[in-house]
Design brief:
Elements: E1 3-6, E2 9-12, E3 16-17, H1 33-45, E4 50-52, H2 62-70, E5 78-83, E6 85-86, E7 94-95, H3 99-113, E8 118-123, H4 132-145, E9 148-154, H5 158-165, E10 170-176, H6 185-194, E11 197-201, H7 213-222, H8 226-237, H9 250-257, H10 266-272
Parallel strand pairs: 3-4, 4-5, 5-8, 8-9, 9-10, 10-11
Antiparallel strand pairs: 1-2, 6-7
Helix pairs in contact: 1-2, 3-4, 7-8
Length: about 270
């Protein structure tokens, strides 16, 4: 499996988004806790060494499951988590990126993940009620304290990325991006130009792209599944793209991992559009 750099960390090119094992709306415990733990372990068996999670998943549940399944972590295994959201109800994802909230998030994540330092700590979203530089500066302080190795951003514009880079080195950006949702093309390009890893969330979208004729035809031609083509497209989009597809199914996990064997050439990418 090919690798990619996140700061000075080297991880396999296909990661795993861990939130899908939780209850509806990413709220509460998994319906099948033992199955969720088995899924996480199976991902590692298949070569995944990068997991993405967040304090808000559960909330405060997904990180605990990762540690329960995998701690002590395998060598070179990286857990990335996120801060700065609050979940008052299952349907709400409210920004709260005040320094004191980010501090509480950090300390909680360190405890739940059983870590002394988080390898990649990401601001989940800019908070319109808090100056962006203040939130980013707080993560820079965590890095200075040695509790965070690398700082990442999520749901940001190119302009916000540029602003953050003036405060602290940024190792990754995580925005929504997929074969059929390319609103952040300019952010991908900016990350590539700067050597910053780009983590597309919702990499398979709602599945609509997988039902299009051109994706299904390409899958047939390549002896692959539509999901593998969609992930393969992301892998081909830029060398800095690190897809993190998530699932609660072992079968889908194994299918997604097969995308690393899909090589799309220039002509095939042109056919896909």
């Amino acid at each position: 499996m090919n690798t990619i750099k996140i700061g000075d960390l080297t991880v396999h090119r296909l990661g795993f988004g861990a939130m899908r094992v939780l209850g509806p709306n990413v709220w509460g415990e998994p319906k099948d806790r033992a199955g969720a733990l088995h899924l996480f372990r199976r991902a590692v068996e298949l070569g995944v060494n990068f997991f993405d999670t967040a304090e808000s998943y559960g909330p405060q549940t997904d990180e605990t499951l990762i540690a329960e399944a995998l701690h002590p972590y395998p060598k070179d295994f990286v857990v990335a988590t996120k801060c700065g959201l609050v979940r008052p109800t299952p349907s709400r994802w409210d920004s709260d990126a005040r320094p004191e909230k980010l501090r509480r998030d950090l300390e909680g994540s360190l405890k739940r993940l059983k870590l002394d330092c988080i390898a990649l700590y990401q601001l989940h979203a800019p908070d319109p009620k808090v100056p962006f530089a203040e939130s980013v500066g707080t993560l820079a302080q965590f890095r200075k304290e040695g509790k965070v190795r690398h700082v990442g951003l999520s749901n940001v514009s190119v302009q916000q990325l540029e602003q953050a880079l003036k405060i602290v080195p940024i190792a990754s950006v995580q925005n929504r991006y997929s074969f059929d949702y390319r609103n952040h093309d300019e952010v991908v390009d900016a990350c590539e130009a700067k050597g910053i890893a780009f983590l597309p969330w919702y990499p398979l979208g709602d599945g609509a792209a997988l039902r299009t004729a051109k994706v299904k035809n390409m899958a047939k031609d390549k002896g692959a599944t539509p999901a593998q083509i969609a992930i393969g497209w992301l892998l081909a989009r830029s060398p800095v793209v690190l897809p993190i597809p998530g699932t609660s199914s072992i079968a889908h996990l194994e299918e997604n991992m097969g995308a690393t064997r899909v090589q799309l050439n220039a002509e095939e990418l042109k056919r896909l559009g």
